C-alpha cells in the first residue's frame, strides 16, 4: 500500500486576459498558483484484476468514474496496459467545490502514485502532460510549490518557493461555486472587453499587476505581496454571494495582512503575520459568523506538490 499527500492550491493572482486564442472555448489566464499544507490523503493498493475500486470518507464525493482520481487511474491503465487493477482511498480534507482544486490534487496523486507503484519512471513533464488531459489544474498539483500558470493555466513556470507563510482559509458549508458557472458568467459580463489579438493580450497582461506580485515573490516581501493579490473572479462571485464578500472584509478587519477569494471561490484565504495572530483572527471571525456554517482552517504555503509519505 502506498500513501500520498495531495496538497490543495490557492491562487495568489488570477487575471482573465480574454479568449484562449487557439481554442476560444477556454480562457487565456495569468495565474500565480500556490500549494498549501491543507491536503487530501490518497492510499493506493494494487489489485490483480484490471479494475478500479475507489472509496472516500466524504459522502458527497463521487466514487465512480466521475471522480477525477478514478479518471486518472483509467487514463494510466489505458496508457500502460497490463499493470493490473488499483484500489484508491481518498481521505477528503480539502473542502469540495471550494476553488482549492481538491479533485485535481487527488488526480495528481494517482498519477504520481501509479508511476511509483508500476515503476514506470515517468518524468515530471510526462506526468504533467498526462495531467493536462484530465484538467487544467492537475499539472500544477503534481509539482506544487509556487508557479506562474499561463494559457489555460497549464503552461507552468516554477517560481521561487514561498515557504511557511501563515494562512487562514474560510468557507461556508452551504456555499459552493461551480467553476464552469464562474467562467460563463465572467464571459457574459466582461466578454465584450476581452483582448482579441496576441498583441492586445500581451498589453493586458503587462497592465494586469502580475509584475508587482512576481517581484514581491522574488524578494520574499510578504507585506508587498499581500497588497498585490488579485483575482478577477471576485468581480462576479462577490456580488452574487454577499456573505463571501463579508467574510473577506472580516478577515481584514480582524488584522489579516490581506484576504482574497481563491480561484472561482467561494473559499477566501487570508495572510497572517504569525500562527498566534492567525488563531486570534480565527476566533474573532468565527464568532462573527456563528450559526452561518463557516469553517475556518489554518494552513501554510507549501514548497511541494504530491508526496509519497508511506509505503507498507
Ligand atoms: P477547482 O478549484 O479546480 O475549480 P474545486 O475545488 O472548486 O476545484 P473540486 O472540489 O475539485 O472543486 O470538485 C468539484 C466537483 O467535482 C465536486 O462537486 C465533485 O462532484 C466532483 N469531483 C470529482 N472528483 C472529485 C474528487 N476527487 N474530490 C472532490 N470532488 C470531486
UniProtKB/TrEMBL annotation:
The active site is at 9, 137. Catalyzes the phosphorylation of the position 2 hydroxy group of 4-diphosphocytidyl-2C-methyl-D-erythritol. The gene is ispE. NCBIfam families: ispE. Residues 67-145 form the GHMP kinase N-terminal domain. This is 4-diphosphocytidyl-2-C-methyl-D-erythritol kinase. ATP binds at residues 95-105. GO terms for molecular function: 4-(cytidine 5'-diphospho)-2-C-methyl-D-erythritol kinase activity; ATP binding. Transmembrane segments: none annotated.
Amino acid at each position: 500500500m502506498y500513501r500520498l499527500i495531495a496538497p490543495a492550491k490557492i491562487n495568489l493572482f488570477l487575471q482573465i486576459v480574454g479568449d484562449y486564442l487557439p481554442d476560444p472555448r477556454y480562457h487565456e489566464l495569468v495565474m500565480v498558483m500556490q500549494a498549501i499544507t491543507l491536503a487530501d490523503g490518497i492510499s493506493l493498493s494494487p489489485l490483480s484484476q484490471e479494475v478500479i475500486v475507489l472509496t472516500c470518507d466524504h459522502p458527497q464525493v463521487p466514487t465512480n468514474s466521475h471522480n477525477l482520481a478514478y479518471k486518472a487511474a483509467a487514463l494510466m491503465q489505458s496508457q500502460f496496459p497490463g499493470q493490473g487493477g488499483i484500489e484508491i482511498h481518498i481521505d477528503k480534507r480539502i473542502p469540495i467545490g471550494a476553488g482549492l482544486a481538491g479533485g485535481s490534487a487527488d488526480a495528481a496523486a494517482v498519477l504520481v502514485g501509479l508511476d511509483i507503484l508500476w515503476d514506470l519512471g515517468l518524468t515530471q513533464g510526462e506526468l504533467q502532460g498526462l495531467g493536462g488531459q484530465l484538467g487544467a489544474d492537475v499539472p500544477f498539483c503534481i509539482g506544487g510549490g509556487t508557479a506562474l500558470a499561463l494559457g489555460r493555466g497549464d503552461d507552468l513556470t516554477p517560481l521561487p518557493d514561498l515557504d511557511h507563510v501563515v494562512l487562514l482559509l474560510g468557507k461556508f458549508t452551504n456555499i459552493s461555486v461551480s467553476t464552469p458557472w464562474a467562467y460563463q458568467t465572467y464571459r457574459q459580463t466582461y466578454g465584450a472587453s476581452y483582448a482579441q489579438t496576441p498583441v492586445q493580450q500581451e498589453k493586458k497582461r503587462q497592465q494586469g499587476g502580475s509584475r508587482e506580485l512576481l517581484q514581491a515573490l522574488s524578494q520574499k516581501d510578504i507585506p508587498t505581496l499581500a497588497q498585490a493579490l488579485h483575482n478577477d473572479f471576485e468581480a462576479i462571485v462577490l456580488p452574487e454571494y454577499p456573505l463571501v464578500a463579508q467574510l473577506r472584509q472580516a478577515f481584514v478587519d480582524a488584522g489579516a495582512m490581506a484576504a482574497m477569494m481563491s480561484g472561482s471561490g467561494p473559499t477566501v484565504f487570508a495572510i497572517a503575520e504569525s500562527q498566534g495572530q492567525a488563531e486570534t483572527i480565527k476566533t474573532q471571525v468565527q464568532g462573527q459568523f456563528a450559526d452561518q456554517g463557516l469553517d475556518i482552517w489554518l494552513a501554510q504555503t507549501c514548497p511541494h506538490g504530491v508526496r509519497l509519505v508511506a509505503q507498507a
